[in-house]
Amino acid sequence: MSKLTGAQILLRMLKEEGVDTIFGYPGGVVLDIYDELARTDLKHILVRHEQGAVHATDGYARATGKVGVCLVTSGPGATNTVTGIATANMDSIPIVVITGQVPTKLIGNDAFQEVDIVGITRPCTKHNYLVKDVKNLAKTIKEAFHIARSGRPGPVLIDLPKDISIAKTSFKLPDDIELRSYNPTYVPNRKQLQKVVDLIKKAKKPLIFSGGGVNLSRAHQELTELAQKNKIPVTSTLMGLGGFSGMDPLWLGMLGMHGTYRANMSVSECDLMIAVGVRFDDRVTGKTDEFAPYAKIVQIDIDPTSIQKNIQVQVPVVGDCKISLELLNQMIAQEDMGKFKPEHKQWLDRIDNWRKTTPLAYDQKDVIKPQYVIEKLFELTKGEAIITTEVGQNQMWAAQYYHFTEPGRFISSGGLGTMGFGLPAAVGAQVGAPDKIVVDIAGDGSIQMNIQEMATAVQYNLPVKVVILNNGFLGMVRQWQQLFYNRCYSSTKFQHTPDFVKLAEAYGAVGLRATKPEEVEKVLKEGLACNKAVIMDFVVEPEECVYPMVPAGAPISKMLLV
Amino acid sequence: MTKKHILSILVDNEPGVLSRIAGLFSGRGYNIESLCVAETNEPLVSRITMVTKGDTAILEQIKKQVNKIINVIKVADLTDQDFVERELVLLKVSAKPENRAEILRITDIFRGQIVDVGQEHFTINITGDAEKITAILTLLKPFGIREIARTGSIAMFRENKPKS
Ligand SMILES: Cc1ncc(C[n+]2csc(CCOP(=O)(O)OP(=O)(O)O)c2C)c(N)n1
Ligand SMILES: [Mg+2]
């Protein structure tokens, strides 16, 4: 049996797991790994900040459905990953983060660039490891990938001391992973599903409420079949966008704090809610006591902790979204579902009426409206782009006005709401989907949080498009100040912002700007046609608000509409 | 309704596992009344016995969240089941000459032992379930309890009795 160093084992195991690309940033304790890396055909994307590395890894994972991998050094390299890891954790994204660590002998001594990253990331990873013996390395890596991608996915961190990456051991491929303490339930209980079938049969005002779990398990076809065959309208969370086509007549738009009128009203009136892959986050439910007050609620999720946490449901179904929906569809196909009820028809008509009377709306006059930019972008890309977002108003307008048709198309930090996510995530998504148009819909605030990744995009010829909705404000915070703090714009107006066009040029990218509505289409066309990284700076209405809006803690039927 | 629960948790016997569990409780604002950890007869497995408090919904979340930790093998809630519970307590009681006989009598009734004696004190070793411990503490309190060390509860299911 051949003897390999820890570094060689690591890279060998990455290959075994099907990894071809990693995102990273070198440093002292990972020198041996980087040295070895130069002799493999693994593609390494050198980012400009470790936070960017993790977001790029995350964007790559969301766009491809594969496990993303990143590699950083100890100490500050490791602590810089924390925001990215927490972001991936909140959105259940499968990534493996490898951090270098000081040599085993020095751990606990406050050595140079030592930090207890396993301790720091314990509450924001799905699991993490400190490797103390090179003999355990191969198995640990295999286990890490298994845990990251199975069950409810999530980030796994492996802390690898320098001496372990140098130490040699005989290498043997580890056996298949069997963990007696970890066995996610994929196949749901049929009895529970039968209850769902019976409820669908009886329902007069059914509604499907889909979430990130549908995208993660790529259950969009099964969900579509359930909705279309049974004529059930669909709403989703922010994370669920793309799990059901935004172009389908049964689509209601997103629900919750900035949900559409018809989605929120449907929730408030439905008599059956089939919740799939959601966790009833507070941005979705508003006041929990008045959420779906007339509905029997079914909840399908692979993670039992998501069930009965915020909302009491009548029929819990623990299982993978895709497998559960597939089985449910089969059972429905074998069952006499009865005639299509007149009340059900009235329900669909009522929803259609809400769509007509109270659609998403804005008024485009002589200043560019941010919503208009997104609508044009949707039109020009025919809805086929991968859209990443930053956080704030830009994110909500992207969710409202771009329509997504597939999982992996809308890439946004939902759970943590991490400003600075969009650009590095776009870099990662573009690496994973080189033939797609990738657009980061950004705010002028957020884009400055990881703007350095423009250099990464330029270095690797990644033609990511950044659309800045430049309102001169930390817009979403300003909106709250306007509505709930008497227009006291405390620290939300930027007194100085860089010239984004010049900044793009300084990075070696292309910079474009539109200041008038009639320039929007031209700039978008030029930017989208460009085969280089590009920043498009849209100077938009400074005090536009995102509507509808449900004030925090109010029931979601109580929306501010203008 | 908030109620005391005894959880018996089997975990991988590995460094960091206790901190995963303790971190979960502090991070989510759950309450730990007592905690007891040691290896089981299987060296790779430890048992954590934990006393916690909460209403039914919180307890359900606690059990699910603990179960979700990768190193947790099994979580059992002993409350409302047939189980045996023991805690070991060492207590140092002021023992003036005129009180010594009474303290000894109480200790005897509770099947405790005096494990250390001084001019002015007894150190008493007591084992029992929560009720018994509370009872003896109440009885000894008037004499002056100087120090207490408690292990926290450990517990186990009783074997199913044959049906009669
Ligand atoms: C890292 C981080 N810091 C602070 C916040 C709080 N926050 C939420 S939205 C927002 C404003 C974002 O401004 P901008 O990027 O310009 O977007 P806009 O809302 O104007 O579209 C802020 C500060 C956050 N979400 N993330
Ligand atoms: Mg802004």
Order of helices and strands of chain B: EHEEHEEHEEHEE
Report mean pLDDT of chain B, rounded to a whole number.
94
Largest interface (CB within 8 Å) is between: A-B, 17 and 19 residues
Give the number of domains of chain B: 2
CATH first level of the largest domain in chain A: which class?
Alpha Beta
Sum up the structure in keywords.
heterodimer; A: 562 residues; alpha/beta; Rossmann fold; six-stranded parallel sheet; 37% helix; B: 164 residues; alpha+beta; Alpha-Beta Plaits; 9 strands; binds thiamine diphosphate; binds magnesium ion
Describe the structure in your own words.
The complex is a heterodimer of chains A (562) and B (164). By secondary structure, chain A is an alpha/beta fold. In chain A, the strands form 4 sheets. A 6-stranded parallel sheet of chain A has the order 3-2-4-5-7-6, with helices on both faces. In chain A, strands 11-10-9-12-13-14 form a 6-stranded parallel sheet, sandwiched between helices. In chain A, strands 16-15-17-18-20-19 form a 6-stranded parallel sheet, sandwiched between helices. The radius of gyration of chain A is 24 Å and the shape is globular. The mean pLDDT of chain A is 97. With 164 residues, chain B is of the alpha+beta class. Chain B has 2 domains: 3-77, Alpha-Beta Plaits (2-Layer Sandwich), CATH 3.30.70; 85-154, 2-Layer Sandwich (Alpha-Beta Plaits), CATH 3.30.70.1150. Helix content of chain B is 27%, strand content 43%. In chain B, the strands form 2 sheets. In chain B, strands 5, 6, 7, 8 and 9 form a 5-stranded antiparallel sheet that branches. Chain B has a 4-stranded antiparallel sheet with strand order 2-3-1-4, covered by helices on one side. The radius of gyration of chain B is 19 Å and the shape is elongated. The mean pLDDT of chain B is 94. At the A-B interface, loops of A face helix 1 and helix 2 of B. The complex binds thiamine diphosphate (TPP) and magnesium ion. Magnesium ion binds at residues 443-445, 471, 473-475 of chain A.
